[in-house]
Amino acid sequence: MAVGGDEALLERVLRVYKPHCRYLESATVAAGGDPADEGGQVGIRGRFHIPESCYIDDTGHFNAVEFNICYNQMIYLLMAKSVERRLMRSFAGWSMDDFWARQLADMFIVDFHSSFRRHMRGRRFWGELDVVEAFEGDWGSGPFLFLRTTCRFGEADEPAAHGKVLVAVKAGAGADDFSAATA
Hints:
Helices cover 23% and strands 37% of the residues. The chain is built from 4 helices and 7 strands, in the order E-H-E-E-H-H-E-E-E-E-H. A 7-stranded antiparallel beta sheet has the order 1-2-3-5-6-7-4. Helix 1 packs across helix 2. The radius of gyration is 16 Å and the shape is globular. The chain starts with a strand and ends with a helix.
């Protein structure tokens, strides 16, 4: 199942960013099963535009800071769309109000790996992110939903940068029972 562009949802997701840091311009979400099931996957493909760096003079290339910002914008939109369209059982107990209330406070990158295979200018480019596994666990302070993801960015057909990121989402307030949702 593919879900096309939703400009209103994208605008709302990016509202937490300063206007000059809203790099994700459009995206399409696709579901090929639930990531809580072996082989299930939910993904997003987006188009980005970075007119100028938000924190440093022009480096002339896509860098780790921009990689992280672009990753965050895609994962937020993918989670919002997953809540809205019920694409992952792990978010079955969530409303959109739960997502908006928890977008910044209850979502954490707990493991982040990125690699750059070749130079990429990084002004207009594409990005892809896949949730390849969803599971419940304890992160030392109670139950969390963990999303294991892969991502890639590029300007041409081949990706120039790759990543693997583990995201933790705190349980509670509308997502009280991940076990029931992922069972």
